[in-house]
Design goal:
By secondary structure, the chain is α/β, with parallel strands linked by helices. 37% of the residues lie in helices and 16% in strands. Bound molecules: guanosine-5'-triphosphate and magnesium ion. Guanosine-5'-triphosphate binds next to helix 1 and helix 6.
Length: 309
């Protein structure tokens, strides 16, 4: 029997970029992301190897309804960036019209927030025993399965196998941030530093001379007890996600191609854009976090009794 999926809590303060980071890890805009007030409902994303069990991302809501994420034929906005809206349209209104355009996507997301309002109670645990979850096949998971739980800092105190803590680089050193670091240290004390990683997200918003690399790591660790200091990775989830959507979306590629040489010239500039996107992903910290997830998985398979399930 294959082992159960590794359960990873991905948690941070509101707007730290938790949902964006989960999307960047899976390489698709599946979870709603927003600058608007209001915290995402606690959501579980099951990451499964591509081609296994499900052929396409599927949304499961806590009331038992589910919907596949697929391109709706005839939509005016074929980009994968709109897939979150399309994904969420299905279960809320049976036979809903295909999502067309950004306004429709926004309306659907607003509906979803209302519909799921009950699951987003103050402690993030909600009133439903099982939060909505999405099943997403991804290429990099090879044979492993994960459940990524997108939630507030409170889930760091709960029973997960591993913890990915998201800090906002532009709001370090706040009282709230100190509380998140305390929870991260406590989780590290429970499961060990090999099962916790701190992602300092939004590093793209830093400026020359800001903390980076070793000095940033020391700065974060200085605010944690010595026994609870996990690895620190600098991330830019937004740009990693944007770049993977750009690379993975034929419609975007065609648009870029047209923009790159409107007079019908050679493909050199479009090639440079693709290389730029690949470079952006490589520098975003996201590939490193995927490797971390895979390491956590192999450690869990070797030591199944070390988990905190
Ligand atoms: N510049 C920059 N913006 C980011 C980054 N990650 C996320 N954002 C932006 O931050 C905003 C909030 O992102 P979300 O992923 O919704 O944040 P969250 O932590 O899930 O927030 P809630 O669940 O709503 O509390 C969005 O506008 C994202 O595009 C990043 O790495 N860099
Ligand atoms: Mg969120």
């Amino acid at each position: 029997m294959s082992p159960p999926p590794l359960r990873v809590a991905v948690a941070g303060l509101p707007k730290a970029g938790v949902s964006t980071l989960v999307n960047a890890l899976i390489g698709a805009a599946v979870l709603p992301v927003s600058t608007l007030e209001g915290v995402s409902p606690l959501t579980e994303v099951a990451v499964v190897p591509a081609g296994e069990t499900v052929a396409e991302p599927t949304l499961h809501l806590s009331d038992g309804t589910r919907a596949a994420v697929r391109e709706s034929p005839g939509t005016a906005e074929p980009s994968r960036a709109a897939s979150a809206g399309r994904l969420l349209a299905g279960p809320l209104a049976a036979g809903a019209a295909p999502v067309t355009g950004a306004d429709r996507v926004r309306a659907v997301l607003a509906d979803l927030r209302r519909a799921l309002g009950a699951t987003a109670s103050a402690d993030g645990r909600g009133e439903h025993p099982s939060p909505p979850h999405v099943v997403v096949p991804v290429g990099w998971a090879a044979s492993e399965r994960f459940v990524l739980v997108d939630g507030p800092p409170g889930i760091l105190a709960g029973p997960s196998d591993a913890f990915l803590v998201v800090l906002d680089y532009t709001h370090l050193d706040t009282v709230e941030d100190a509380r998140v670091l305390r929870l991260a240290a406590e989780a590290t004390a429970r499961v060990g530093p090999g099962r916790v990683t701190i992602a300092v997200n939004r590093v793209d918003q830093g400026e020359d001379g800001d903390l980076a690399g070793e000095s940033l790591r020391r700065h974060v660790h200085a605010r944690m007890p010595a026994a609870g200091r996990p690895p620190v990775v600098e991330t830019s989830a937004r740009w990693a996600l944007a770049a993977s959507l750009l690379l993975g979306d034929d419609a975007h590629a065609a648009t870029l191609d047209a923009l790159a040489h409107p007079m019908g010239g050679g493909a050199a500039d479009a090639g440079a854009l693709s290389r730029g996107a690949e470079h952006t992903i490589a520098a975003s910290g996201i590939p490193e976090l995927r490797q971390t997830l895979l390491r956590w998985w192999s450690a869990a398979v070797r030591a199944p009794h070390g988990t905190t399930r």
